[in-house]
Amino acid sequence: MNVAKSGYRVFSANSTPACTELAKKITERLGVEPGKSVVYQNPNRETRVEIKESVRGQTIFIIQTIPRDVNTAIMELLIMAYALKTSCAKNIIGVIPYFPYSKQCKMRKRGSIVCKLLASMLAKAGLTHIITMDLHQKEIQGFFSFPVDNLRASPFLLQYIQEEVPDYRNAIIVAKSPSAAKRAQSFAERLRLGLAVMHGEAQCSESDMADGRHSPPCVRNTGHPGLELPCKQHAPFPGIELPIMMAKEKPPITVVGDVGGRIAIIVDDIIDDVEDFVAAAEILKERGAYKIYIMATHGLLSADAPRLIEESAIDEVVVTNTVPHEVQKLQCPKIKTVDVSMILAEAIRRIHNGESMAYLFRNITVDD
Questions:
Q1: Where is 103: in which H helix or E strand?
Q2: Beta strands 291-299 and 263-271: pairing type?
Q3: What is the pLDDT of residues 68-100, one digit of tens each?
Q4: What does the alpha-carbon distance between residue 111 and residue 339 come to, in Å, rounded to a whole number?
Q5: What is the pTM of this model?
């Protein structure tokens, strides 16, 4: 393809070579040359971006994969978008396969919704559209003032199960928590397999106690065990008695569904701290599962995750290349990668040509 006549450019906003691999695969599939730019860090750790060609009046796609240094990657993206905006680019579209801070999409006590802040920053920097994949919550799309295409990695993971998991017909799809049941149900229905749900694990980050509505009032004991009254500064109006919220108790871990003699496939959107996955694998082994697979879109695999996976009952962890994890793969042979550059390249082609994106979402319902 003649890039000069195509009317669009594809840039990579990453300064580290390990993070540019996905961009290279996407440009190869599109048959275009990567845009000429330089992204680097000054000695004082300031990010500098230089655009080395004219982009006036063109549609620009910025591919940004997010490494461990999340905040540097965000600044690279923002600065490149702003540089392209001030260079009179017509449209600036961010291709961000893993959207950072997506877990911080709810109010936590007296914190902030950081995901909303990031969406506002991207719009201010000049982005007019983003392409991402498997947002942690689909409602995050409402944070943006411009269009968002939230692609799905599930077709690639389903294909891996069908082609690479021996005797997958004897498998059962497992949700490691009730909150992941909807995603697991989608996998189970498409593969015509059974579904199991684990219940009782600790979920501090998603607990109802973390949203600020249960700030405990200061209390004074009246001498009667179990009976506590609010102090004067938090006392209700005279004549009003507020009902006491009963404290939650963590139930014992249970597995709803029969996994005995089956292959257990745990599905989720992000695998980062793997302690929960390791604990879930141990429970499933105790219940009779003879193989444990983990399927996730984004393999962050932070800290000592590779070592924990290698020493655990997990047989294989399958993630996509939305996040670079070559170092983790060298540390743990159980980690496998599925390439999703094909669907990202097709999304870029369709957006540039003004074609419908419905083909990329075929057979995907609102609940998926």
A1: none
A2: parallel
A3: 899 999 999 999 999 999 999 999 999 999 999
A4: 36
A5: 0.85
